Every structure is written in C-alpha cells, then in structure tokens.
Amino acid sequence: MLGESNYKLITATNELGMIAESKEGQDDIIVKNELHLPVNKEVEFKFNSRDVIHSAYFPHFRAQMNCVPGMTTMFHFTPTITTAEMRTKTGNDKFDYILLCNKICGNSHYNMQMTIIVETEAEYSKWLREKKPFGTATATAETK
Ligand SMILES: [Cu+2]
Description:
By secondary structure, this protein is an alpha+beta fold. It is about 10% helix and about 25% strand. It is globular and about 45 Å long.
C-alpha cells in the first residue's frame, strides 16, 4: 500500500509530495536513479505526473505507460530474468534494464532515465533493508 501524496507538497526534500501524516506512506521507500525488483514476482507500477504528460518506457520489458497529471495510470508485470542472467545471455557485462521517458516532455527530458536491477529475492531483501522508509525521522529522498 503506497502512501498518499499531493504534487503541491513537492519540495527539494519531499520530491514526491508525500503526505507526512499518511499512515500507508510510513514504510514507503523513495528511490531516485535505481529501482530494484525481485525476479519472478508480480510488480505493480503506478504512475503520476506533476506537470505534463510523460511516458514511462521499459524497452526490455516491452512496456510503456503514459504518466498523466491529475490521474494515476498503472500496469503490472512479472520480470523473469535477472540483470545478472541478462548480462550472461547478452554477453554484455554492462547490461542494465532501463526506464526512460518516451515523450519529448521539456528541458529535463534527456535526464529522465532510471536503471532497473532485477535480482534474486535475497538480494532484493538486502537492498530493501538498506533503505530508510519515508516515516523514519532521518529519511529524505535518496540521492544516489
Ligand atoms: Cu520526457
């Protein structure tokens, strides 16, 4: 369950406009440049936009979804091949799954990209444990 947010609350330290009092948001993890997913587990993506229409494009997963101001769009899928397995399969030890914006949305369009690491459940759990949930006093948006 994701916490509630409002784009009007977006600041330098609250990049998603999270509502601090939202009970569901206390355990939310906020990431910036890298998202980890456990392999063979269904993932639900929900998208919002604070300004214009963007398009979340996952070329390796053959998936794309518009991100629309004022509404939530979503899709779900199950990643079945880890990043490590893909590096072996493709013979490219630098292979990464990526998420890009696929709409020419403005000045920062070139910078709208994120790496997605698909990994084993154990690796994913370890990554998750290292993250500070939104509700902890010292948590701010990760700036990796
Ligand atoms: Cu864009």
